[in-house]
Amino acid sequence: MRRAATTAAGQASGHDVAAIRADAGTKGRILDIAERLVQVCGFNGFSYGDVAAELGITRAALHYHFASKAELGEALIDRYTARFGRALDDLAAGSGFAPDLLRGYAGLYREVLRQGRMCLCGMLAAEYQTLPSAMRSAVVRFLDQNETWLAAVLEQGAAAGSVQAGASAQDTARMIIGGLEGAMLVARPYSDVGRFDAAAASLLAGVTGATATAS
Questions:
Q1: What is the C-alpha separation between 82 and 70, in angstroms, rounded?
Q2: Entry pTM
Q3: Residue 212: what are its φ and ψ, rounded to 5°?
Q4: Cβ atoms of 59 and 49 closer than 8 Å
Q5: Pair 38, 123: CB distance under 8 Å
Q6: DSSP letters along 37-106, please?
Q7: pLDDT per residue over 161-193, tens digit each?
Q8: pLDDT digits (tens, 9 = 90+) for 26-44
Q9: Which of 26, 63, 68, 105 has fewest C-beta within 10 Å?
Q10: What totals of helices (H) and strands (E) does the chain contain, helices first?
Q11: Which helix (H) or strand (E) element contains residue 159?
């Protein structure tokens, strides 16, 4: 009797695991679709109906995973920030030379633009005043994360003599973020990654003292 009960419990547990995995898969697809829509149309440019229609589920099913669009938006930023953070860690693990790290950083933005998208948090920053407060805070966390990483790279480069020590590392980090986000924005109407490359190369040349060369 106990063996039968244990077997039944094990089967129920297996079903629960399968259901959890299915839910996680659906949640991931919702985030993937919503992320692309934000990067292309902006947060205010799509609705729950758009996501539900593309995924082939009902709006009620969508609300099961994310009770509100604000909750979905915050989850998007948190996931994007974590993924971007891992990319920064990978850059740091691959090279200790500040100019290489800066070029690699610009390359992260370039890859997003190459896909016909904008930086998720750059798009959201443009809509900042219309966003729920939790999303505003999440956007700031993303920018702060990037600023902190860049400032550390710049300080390291200045100490090694590979980066020009002009303005403070924090001010230069802010300039780089603003410059790259702006370069993406201006290149977008032309569907021309080359415009971004030229702007990014000039921006980084001003920091490293190297000759600007677009990739």
A1: 18
A2: 0.85
A3: -70, 125
A4: yes
A5: yes
A6: HHHHH-GGG--HHHHHHHHT--HHHHHHH-SSHHHHHHHHHHHHHHHHHHHHHHHHHH---HHHHHHHHH
A7: 999 877 799 999 999 999 999 999 999 999 999
A8: 999 999 999 999 999 999 9
A9: 68
A10: 9, 0
A11: helix 133-160
